[in-house]
Amino acid sequence: MPTIRIAGQYFRTPFVLLFGAELTFGVLSVYLAMTWLQTEAVLGEPWLWSAGVFGGTMTLSMAAMGLYQSGVWEGVISYLSRLVVALFGAGVILAIISYWTPTMTIDRTVVATAAGIAIAFITLDRLIFRRLVDSGALARKIIVLGTGAKARTISQIAEQTKSVEIVWFFPVAGEKFDVDSERIVHQPVKLSDLAEQYGCEEIVIATGERRNTLPMPELLACRARGIRVTDENSFVEKETGKISLDLLTPGWLVGSEGFRYGARARMLRRGFDLVTASLLLVFALPVMAVTALAIFFESGFSGPILYRQMRVGENGNLFEVLKFRSMRTDAESDGKARWAMTNDARITRVGKWIRRSRVDELPQLLNVLKGEMSFVGPRPERPEFVDELEKVIPFYAERHCMKPGLTGWAQLRYSYGASQDDAAQKLQYDLYYIKNHSFLMDLLILVQTAEVVVFGRGAR
Questions:
Q1: Alpha carbon distance 457, 195 (integer Å)
Q2: In a shared domain, residues 280 and 373
Q3: Is residue 420 domain-resident?
Q4: What range(s) does the Bacterial sugar transferase domain occupy (predicted)?
């Protein structure tokens, strides 16, 4: 099944279908609950609209808990905990909607019954979906043009994601064999005929040297027959949600689609930041007040509550980021910048809690209001680290072409970064975001950030 692209964001077709099926299950669950209870429990007309709100809220909450991501198969306990939290969140949202819109109210007994039915439906369909994924039934068939190191990288991605099945590796002159020899085409055959014979939807070009080696007439024949032809960078981008530094070249970045960041997009982004930061700041004030008091008491009624630190912002400009202080006041008494480590001894007892819950980042709402940060974007890094990383990681400076964010694509897809290797891994996701970002993608990131906050993923 092909990957769907909407507003610059790639969606895997099986997960889109899964989302649609579970949205339908949510609506059906309300109907079955009403039938079972033999009650006209939905006030207002039409009832289907209220049931749709239930189903939509349920699936949105599930998306927020990461239940539509390819890496969701972590185990039964992880799945059930995310599903329970998602349904609880959906219940809270429904209660708020019911309060403000009485004509869409669903009786609480119906909601509870529908939730139980939905859990049964969703668990069953997830078991079926997982079996289909593991069996490769949902994977789209591709042919990789090349047999060297780049082809091996494509093979590794296919094994990890299970979203594609490599039917054949098609050799080109001068390349050694670094892939499974049993899947290498050794007989003379036309590439287009081979693709049609095995029902392949895509040809991925993964050769080390392309001049005078690519079978251009055959690739054109594939395009003419409706078979997609993709280079290795675009394939990795679609399948992994990142841009591989190992495969990246300046020419590909310059010639590829994306990087849309005009005046209209900037205005929309800024307006969204101002409205959202203002509203969130109002709701977060009680939590911020309690956090400030806890830090004040723990420090013996002395020491700063807020931590101010220089960070690198848009176009390399420096700004002072605000955070609740989570470390001892002597954490860097020698003036040397250090990465935060797992179980860092410099973190206070209150600091452990506010880091895990991300409460320490709430003062950055003021940075957003000042225009120094955005809600979504690459996380701002310290200038000492940036100077070091730009020397050893190619394209690292490109992440500063837009405002840093409170949350971001890299924060969702990769754990906490505390080394040069981690910075290089996160850069691949930052480059993907910068290239493909859109308002829809920002909304999706904000929704999925709920999982990071609830489960404390990546906190140190």
A1: 42
A2: yes
A3: yes
A4: 269-454
